[in-house]
């Protein structure tokens, strides 16, 4: 079916303002938040009824047209990068909170509802939705499920997969499935886990039931300064080892904390090599008990200065700096590239040293802001896309950082997803048997391979071309490292 | 004691794949009841055991599947850590592999999460005899599909578990149990209210007119919670070995309640679901009311589904496996996806065929 015929069929389902097809209308949808990759789709469909989504899928299935789902477009790995021969299916207009059950502490929402809007809507019941990616003002819950989004509070409260209980999805054939249930367990395979983080490759999400938590009575944050980033990294492990699970445990290096301080006047100690933000929450008694312990550990670990936020205003100020860190760093350089590797916590110091050496080797500054509590690094590589070759060098440097994360026992992505960005690194993380198994999982849902083709799982051919298939079961690309 | 049988096990699965000969996977042999009897050559994995890596400050343990649950929990206890989903032991020989394969969680489930919530990674041998590692040993990992959590509850039908990496948590510094006189129908709303108020309730169990409520946190937080509950309800404070043993009996379904008949049902739904299964006082309630155990002669599947939940038979006496399905039938669309997934991991259906449901077995034939 040619483009015109397909558009005609789609107009049978969608109204004029629900189907974009002119180049100038398609342009805003050519990329998500990973703007280095862009592509115009055949058309953008923006339905607002489930029956329309069903009809679009049935049509695309029958005609073999690729479908790429998109939420708010805030993804950082190109997961909703359009397909040139496909339909970009925006779920942004499914933005209603369908019901809230304060007693059972759940809410049923449509996929286009913004992450923060859920917490705002249930606040009157003393509840909130825990996962809080830094884009939470804008990002949608459907995208959060597709990427298994995390945030600052993951260590204690889990990722998206731990905070949803039920999904309604449509398969590429247009069949509706209910995955999971309102109970604390479900019969059959755990498809809820499989679909969470599946990057729009297995099904289209049409409804999400989220688990809500009581807002803690109290939260207190300590800001500790260090004159050595490795010592700060060591303090992270010590806190965990002593039986404290902080609600948030974030590390920023000097470049990051100064940029953030310039940007939002967070009151950070600008002479520190690194700072740790450690938040504890719970009942008044729990917070008091834990805070005493945390302060003691931070002192023992060699913090040069420790401040506990005096009140809510100061606590908000401390966090404002962390939450603004990415845009703040964005002011330092024309462009930056945000990485997302995870590592075992005890490797933090070594990995930071490795990144510092690479930064020198490539002549590109790297700023570190990360979720230290769960070993999730976000090195930001500063570059200027107008300098020929600099983006390519940046990507190469980023790739080496991720390879190193894998080599020390970590992963190429903690919360941003693989998308198109890390598709080559997947060949480092997994061997051919695993990648083939992933393709068979995909085929179990989508035999024709129409949902978000080319993302998440590389073809074996791509891995062979990338020259990385040798990394499998102990054959590491960094033989100089001790085994983990 | 620690042994790595990976190569032997892989060879056995490869042979079975080549010969299309079904295997019946057995580790500790204590969870036979939790599914249909499997016709196949026994593949014993209990010898594949030992902790591979455990760094308390990482909150992660990687352990071979045949490791006895008790041995793993003892190693964690020495570091004041625990498996927060509080898995049941169905006998001294229960293993961590069997626990994860069955997806079993205990009294702490409502507060802390289920077995699947603590799985970070697994190594499996799929039905083709290929060794695959999914997930990892870090808290956050979204590379590839989450095939690691998919193994939880799959009872080996998607892959033979070799080892599993689990997130562990520190044990609460203080713990005690309160006993309150309360009607069964009042239990869910009452406990949920306290949960919403942020009280550190780590387990709840209602039986014969008494609610047992376990509190766990820092010492002063437990004291404050007790004082708060005592203000609105007369309660008796208990702790020590007798109390700990009570919770173990509930966790392991060893309490006399569970053995009162051969028709034990496990009903799972929203905690606020009205009672529909006979005399509420004759039930045992857990998980703030979201889990109800009842003895019933009649089939409970349809009734549970009508109330938005699901029922499961729990034939504790069936050591070799149940004669028929114990789990409810899946909706047709889900059953189809499940069958395709099964084929994606085990195209010849050699791993525990028929364990989860009859239709699964029929699909193999």
Describe this structure in a few short sentences:
The complex is a heterodimer of chains A (484) and B (365). By secondary structure, chain A is an alpha+beta fold. Helix content of chain A is 35%, strand content 19%.
Biggest sheet details of chain B:
8 strands, antiparallel
Q: How much helix, percentage-wise, in residues of chain B? A: 25-40%
Give the termini separation of chain B.
Answer: 40 Å
Radius of gyration of chain A: 23 Å
What is the typical, i.e. mean, pLDDT of chain A? 93
Could you say which structural class the secondary elements and strand pairing of chain B correspond to? alpha+beta
**How do the strands line up in the largest sheet of chain A?**
15-12-14-13-17-18-16
How would you characterize this protein structure?
The complex is a heterodimer of chains A (484) and B (365). Chain A is α+β, with helices and mostly antiparallel strands. Chain A has four domains: 3-90, Uridine Diphospho-n-acetylenolpyruvylglucosamine Reductase, domain 2, CATH 3.30.43.10; 97-214, Uridine Diphospho-n-acetylenolpyruvylglucosamine Reductase, domain 3 (2-Layer Sandwich), CATH 3.30.465.10; 218-328, Alpha-Beta Plaits; 333-466, Alpha-Beta Plaits (2-Layer Sandwich), CATH 3.30.70.2740. Chain A contains 17 helices and 18 strands. In chain A, the strands form four sheets. A seven-stranded antiparallel β-sheet of chain A has the order 15-12-14-13-17-18-16, with helices on both faces. In chain A, a hairpin with a 4-residue loop joins strand 5 (97-101) and strand 6 (106-109). Chain A is globular. The N and C termini of chain A lie far apart (53 Å). Residues 469-484 of chain A have low confidence and may be disordered. By secondary structure, chain B is α+β, with helices and mostly antiparallel strands. Chain B has eleven helices and 17 strands. Chain B has an eight-stranded antiparallel β-sheet. A five-stranded antiparallel β-sheet of chain B has the order 3-4-8-6-7. In chain B, strand 11 (201-207) and strand 12 form a beta hairpin. The two termini of chain B are 40 Å apart. The chains are: A alpha+beta (484), B alpha+beta (365). At the A-B interface, strand 9, helix 7, helix 8, helix 10 and helix 16 of A face strand 7, helix 5, strand 9, helix 6 and helix 7 of B.
């Amino acid at each position: 079916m040619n483009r015109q015929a397909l558009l005609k069929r789609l107009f049978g389902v969608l109204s004029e303002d629900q189907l974009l097809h002119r180049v100038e209308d398609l342009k805003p949808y050519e990329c998500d938040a990973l703007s280095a990759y862009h592509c115009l789709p055949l058309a953008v469909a923006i339905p607002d009824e489930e029956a329309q989504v069903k009809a679009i899928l049935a049509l695309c299935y029958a005609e073999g047209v690729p479908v790429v789902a998109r939420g708010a477009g805030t993804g950082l790995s190109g997961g909703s990068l359009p397909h040139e021969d496909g339909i970009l299916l925006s779920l942004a207009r499914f933005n209603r909170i369908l019901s809230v059950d304060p007693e059972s502490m759940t809410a049923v929402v449509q996929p286009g509802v913004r992450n923060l809007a859920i917490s705002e809507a249930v606040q009157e019941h003393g509840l909130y939705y825990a996962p809080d990616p830094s884009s939470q003002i804008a990002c949608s819950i459907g995208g959060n499920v597709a990427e298994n989004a995390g945030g600052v509070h993951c260590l204690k409260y889990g990722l998206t997969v731990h905070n949803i209980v039920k999904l309604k999805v449509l398969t590429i054939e247009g069949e509706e499935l209910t995955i999971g249930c309102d109970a604390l367990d479900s019969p059959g395979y755990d498809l809820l886990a499989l679909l969470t983080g599946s990057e729009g490759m297995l099904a289209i999400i049409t409804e999400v039931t989220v688990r809500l938590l009581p807002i803690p009575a109290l939260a207190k944050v300590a800001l500790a300064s260090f004159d050595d980033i490795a010592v700060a990294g060591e303090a992270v492990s010590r806190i965990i080892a002593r039986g404290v699970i902080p609600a948030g445990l974030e590390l920023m290096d000097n470049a990051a904390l100064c940029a953030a301080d310039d940007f939002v006047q967070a009151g950070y100690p600008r002479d520190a090599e690194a700072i740790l933000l450690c938040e504890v929450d719970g009942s008044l008694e729990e917070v008091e008990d834990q805070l005493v312990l945390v302060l003691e550990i931070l002192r023992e670990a060699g913090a040069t200065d420790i401040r506990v936020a005096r009140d809510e205003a100061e606590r908000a100020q401390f966090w404002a700096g962390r939450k603004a860190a990415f845009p703040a760093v964005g002011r330092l350089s024309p462009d930056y590239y945000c990485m997302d590797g995870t590592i075992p916590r005890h490797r933090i110091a070594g990995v930071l040293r490795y990144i510092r050496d690479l930064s020198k080797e490539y002549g590109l500054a790297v700023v570190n802001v990360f979720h230290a509590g769960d070993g999730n690094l976000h090195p930001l590589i500063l570059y200027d896309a107008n300098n020929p070759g600099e983006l390519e060098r940046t990507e190469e440097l980023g790739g080496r950082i991720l390879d190193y994360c894998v080599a020390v026992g970590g992963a190429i992505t903690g919360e941003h997803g693989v998308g198109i960005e890390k598709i080559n690194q997947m060949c480092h993380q997994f061997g051919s048997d695993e990648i083939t198994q992933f393709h068979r999982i995909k085929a179990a849902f989508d035999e024709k391979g129409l949902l978000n083709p080319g993302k998440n799982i590389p073809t074996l051919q791509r891995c062979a071309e990338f020259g990385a298939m040798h990394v499998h079961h102990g054959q590491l690309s960094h033989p100089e490292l001790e085994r983990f | 004691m620690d042994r790595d049988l990976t190569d032997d096990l892989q060879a056995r699965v490869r042979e079975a794949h080549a010969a299309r000969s079904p295997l019946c996977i057995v580790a500790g042999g204590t969870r036979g009841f939790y599914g249909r009897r499997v016709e196949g050559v026994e593949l014993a994995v209990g010898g594949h055991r030992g902790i591979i890596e455990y760094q308390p400050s990482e909150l992660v343990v990687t352990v071979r599947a045949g490791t006895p649950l008790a041995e793993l929990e003892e190693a964690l206890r020495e570091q004041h850590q625990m498996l927060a989903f509080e898995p049941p032991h169905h006998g001294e020989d229960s293993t961590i592999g069997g626990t994860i394969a069955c997806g079993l969680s205990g009294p702490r489930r409502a507060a802390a999460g289920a077995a699947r919530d603590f799985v970070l990674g697994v190594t499996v041998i799929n039905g083709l005899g290929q060794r695959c590692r999914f997930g990892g040993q870090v808290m956050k990992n979204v590379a590839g599909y989450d095939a690691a959590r998919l193994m939880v509850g799959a009872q080996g039908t998607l892959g033979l578990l070799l080892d599993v990496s689990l997130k562990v948590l520190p044990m609460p510094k203080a713990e005690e149990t309160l006993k309150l006189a309360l009607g069964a129908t009042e239990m869910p709303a009452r406990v949920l209210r306290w949960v919403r108020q942020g009280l550190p309730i780590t387990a709840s169990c209602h039986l014969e007119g008494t609610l047992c409520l376990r509190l766990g946190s820092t010492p002063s937080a437990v004291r404050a919670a007790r004082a708060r509950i005592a203000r609105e309800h007369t309660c008796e404070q208990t702790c020590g070995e007798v109390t700990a043993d009570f919770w173990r009996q509930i966790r392991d379904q060893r309490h006399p309640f569970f053995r009162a008949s051969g028709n034990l049902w496990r009903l799972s739904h929203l905690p606020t679901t009205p009672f529909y299964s006979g005399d509420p006082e004759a039930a045992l309630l857990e998980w703030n009311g979201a889990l109800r155990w009842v003895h019933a002669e009649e089939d409970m599947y349809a009734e549970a589904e009508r109330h938005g939940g699901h029922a499961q038979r729990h034939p504790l006496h069936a050591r070799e496996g149940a004669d028929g399905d114990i789990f409810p039938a899946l909706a047709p669309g889900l059953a189809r996806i499940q069958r395709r997934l099964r084929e994606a991991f085990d195209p010849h259906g050699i791993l525990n065929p028929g364990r989860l449901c009859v239709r699964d077995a029929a699909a193999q034939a």
